[in-house]
UniProtKB/TrEMBL annotation:
The keyword Transferase does not apply. It comes from Enhydrobacter aerosaccus. GO terms for biological process: menaquinone biosynthetic process. The keyword Lyase applies. The record marks Y76, Y236 as: Important for catalysis. Converts o-succinylbenzoyl-CoA (OSB-CoA) to 1,4-dihydroxy-2-naphthoyl-CoA (DHNA-CoA). This is 1,4-dihydroxy-2-naphthoyl-CoA synthase.
């Protein structure tokens, strides 16, 4: 596959770096991006010469800001239940039998925060900001993005993230358990390299077993997610959801209330 939306590199040897390369839209993903990410994770995941996968975003503004709000009104573009086969990508990050590191170089927002949450480890620049925006833009991740987030940072904090849609600094992310470490922006690559080198020295089979064992406890969320995606595809067709996307594109506050009041 020729990649248009991502970059795949082996850098350094034994480490696959997958970069979402859409900086003009703050590394938001469209259907094509998700297909390419799936292809790249499959490639790195089953290549025995690769020990660690690093996921990041191009430029220094954003890691990833979720679904591309310019690429949809209602359903996203693509072949998945909601257009984007995002649930396949999320599962794949869990399924690859090796550690995945999120190198968070800027905003990790919406579906971007979900991807970072699903990575095994998160190394954040001090420029990074984290948060969910679904209820502000007419969306929600009714699976790993909510239920697994609660496992990672606790129920109260996860509900705060989703209901209030605030932004959190990298230091706050570390304090709540959403990131492992925060480093000055200029030291981000050196820190990621250090973690990769340590992982390269560990037994790959022991790491794979540990990862699968950690995953086993939250595996039921995969089922919740596929059921939730069916519901989400119906929500995306409502005026209430479309108002969220329109408001983002028109750079104004959404007004969800008339849509709610109009419902029978
Ligand atoms: C990232 C922001 C917080 C940055 O805010 P700010 O600094 O004020 O800058 P802006 O002017 O807002 O943005 C700069 C520039 O970037 C463009 N942009 C940013 N994000 C997107 C985006 N997601 N899509 C398209 N374009 C984007 C923005 O338009 C500006 O461009 P200009 O040309 O300069 O105008 C803020 O931008 C922000 O909050 N962004 C997030 C917006 C958003 O709504 N994201 C989608 C969230 S919903 C989602 O991801 C659901 C889809 C999905 O993935 C999913 C669905 C179902 C189940 C699971 C999932 C899942 O989450 O995995």
């Amino acid at each position: 596959m020729d990649y248009q939306d991502i970059v795949y590199e082996e850098r350094p040897r034994g480490v696959a770096r997958i970069t979402i390369n859409r900086p003009a839209s703050y590394n938001a993903f469209r259907g094509q991006t998700v297909e390419e990410l799936i292809h790249a994770f499959l490639k790195a995941g089953w290549d025995r010469s690769i020990a660690v996968i690093v996921l990041t975003g191009a430029g220094d503004k954003a890691f990833c800001t979720g679904g591309d709000q310019g690429a949809h009104e209602g359903q996203y573009d693509g072949r998945g239940t909601i257009g984007l086969p995002i649930d396949e990508l999320q599962s794949l990050i869990r399924d690859v039998p090796k550690p995945v590191i999120a190198r968070v170089n800027g905003f990790a927002i919406g579906g971007g925060n979900v991807l970072a949450t699903l990575c095994d480890l998160t190394i954040a620049s001090d420029k990074a900001q984290f948060g969910q925006v679904g209820p502000k833009v007419g969306s929600v991740d009714p699976g790993f993005g909510t239920a697994y987030l609660a496992r990672v940072i606790g129920e109260k904090k996860a509900r705060e993230l989703w209901y209030l849609c605030r932004r959190y600094t990298a230091q706050q992310a570390v304090e709540m358990g959403l990131a492992n470490v925060v480093v000055p922006h200029a030291e981000l690559d050196a820190e990621v390299d250090r973690w990769c080198q340590e992982l390269l020295e560990r037994s790959p089979t022991a790491l794979a077993l540990a990862k699968r064992s950690f995953n086993a406890d939250t595996e039921s969320i995969r089922g919740i997610s596929s059921m939730g995606m069916q519901a989400l595809s119906l929500y995306y067709e409502t005026e209430e959801s479309k108002e969220g996307g329109r408001a983002f594109r028109e750079k104004r506050k959404p007004n969800f209330r008339p849509e709610v009041a109009a419902k029978p």
